[in-house]
Specification:
Elements lengths: L1 H28 L6 E2 L4 E3 L5 E10 L11 H13 L17 E9 L9 E8 L10 E8 L9 E8 L10 E10 L12 E6 L6 H15 L2 E2 L2 E2 L1 E3 L4 E5 L8 H9 L2 E2 L7 E5 L4 E4 L4 E2 L3 E4 L2 E5 L10 E5 L7 E2 H10 L4 H13 L3 E2 L1 E4 L1
Parallel strand pairs: 15-23, 19-20
Antiparallel strand pairs: 1-14, 2-9, 3-4, 3-6, 4-5, 5-8, 6-7, 7-8, 9-13, 10-11, 12-13, 15-16, 17-21, 17-22, 18-19
Length: 364
């Protein structure tokens, strides 16, 4: 028994050494800067969200509908009643129907598409004089696709009880699972034996597109008619040809392309400002050049030798041994003298217009 325990202990030690060796080999074979894949910075063209839309009627409202103030609602209701075998002589006969509202209905199909029988959430928005859709029910409404507006194709039907998510906007509601797909909806991702990779906006530039094409060609090492598989078309799109051996199984080839390891791409310095909420998000490497900004009773000076002027609130930014200052330090200095967020945003806009913001300013 003791001999068995010794053998088992020896085997565990040997297994641990073997695992450590494999980890070391993988660490050497996988460079530290190549810890991401193409699918983390690209998407496949044809795999994006699509919107189905239609126009319908909401019924059962408690006097908050369009009423006679919006004639298109009366005409739509008259047409619906005619289809139901209850025609009216004229739409004006329905002028007192205040429990009905004309609405726009939209449903978003996910990037992977949807199959017949799937249920999607849909959004209902009033387009007439309705005051509220609360308590209403959407009458059966056909939803068409985005293609060929001259000859629309019905992909789904929507109906159901409307729930109001934001009480401040009662004319917009949602129906959970209210859209039922009647046909499959898929966008083709292979065209003429090729696929197209689309760089996300944060990485879209000519150098990155060229690098992605080069990584695909070097990693897969496959040629078609003596030419490399991938080529960059512009700063955002990379075209990849599908080899003949994968024509019957393009999904396998696409999975290999998307799993191709790439070097982590640095994101350009940027400042994202939400003017509605006053939030400011700054990447740590955003810098600003020497500049003096006067805003209301606040004076901002950056650059070597910044000295406080007389009067007003002053925010000096003087980087040591550098001609540029970090924007983060500027915002911290403005916060220290209790400058309101909106004033900070106005100062950032001024610095950007002056060409001293060494980064991209994104306003939301």
């Amino acid at each position: 028994m003791e001999a068995f325990r010794q053998c088992k202990r020896f085997w565990n030690i040997l297994s641990g050494i073997r695992a450590a060796v494999w980890l070391l080999v993988l660490g050497l074979a996988w460079p530290s800067e190549a810890k991401t894949t193409i699918k983390s910075i690209c998407r496949l063209k044809g795999q994006e969200e699509n919107t189905l839309h239609g126009m319908g009627l909401v019924v059962g409202l408690k006097g908050t509908g369009d009423g006679g103030a919006f004639l298109p609602t009366m005409r739509s209701l008259a047409m619906t009643m005619q289809l139901m075998g209850k025609p009216v002589q004229a739409p004006t006969e329905l002028k007192d129907a205040k429990n009905v509202a004309l609405v726009l209905v939209t449903a978003t199909v996910p990037p992977g598409g949807a199959r017949q029988g799937d249920r999607l959430d849909c959004v209902v928005s009033s387009i007439g004089a309705a005051k509220s859709l609360k308590g209403g029910r959407l009458f059966l409404t056909p939803l068409v696709g985005p293609e060929n507006p001259q000859n629309p194709r019905v992909y789904a039907f929507a109906e159901g009880l409307i729930s109001i998510e934001d009480e401040s906007t009662p004319t917009i509601g949602k129906i959970a699972g209210g859209c039922r797909m009647e046909e499959d909806f898929f966008t083709p991702f292979v065209k003429d034996g090729r696929i197209t990779l689309v760089l996300d906006p944060n990485h879209a530039d000519f150098q990155t597109a060229s690098d992605v094409a080069e990584w695909i060609n070097s990693q897969l090492s496959i040629q078609v008619e003596g030419k490399p598989l991938a080529r960059a078309i512009n700063q955002q799109n990379i075209e990849v040809r599908i080899p003949p051996q994968y024509h019957d199984d393009p999904v396998l080839f696409i999975s290999q392309v998307l799993a191709t390891p790439v070097q982590a791409q640095p994101v350009l310095p940027r400042v994202v400002v939400n003017e509605r909420t006053g939030s400011i998000v700054i990447s740590g490497d955003v810098e600003i050049g020497p500049v003096v900004v006067t805003h209301k009773n606040v004076v901002v000076e950056t650059g070597p030798g910044a000295a406080a002027p007389t009067g007003g609130r002053f925010a000096p930014i003087d980087p040591e041994q550098a001609q540029t200052a970090k924007l983060k330090a500027l915002v911290e200095a403005l916060n220290a003298v209790h400058v309101p967020p909106q004033d900070i945003i106005d100062i950032l806009k001024g610095i950007d217009r002056n060409g001293k913001l060494h980064g991209k300013l994104i306003l939301q």
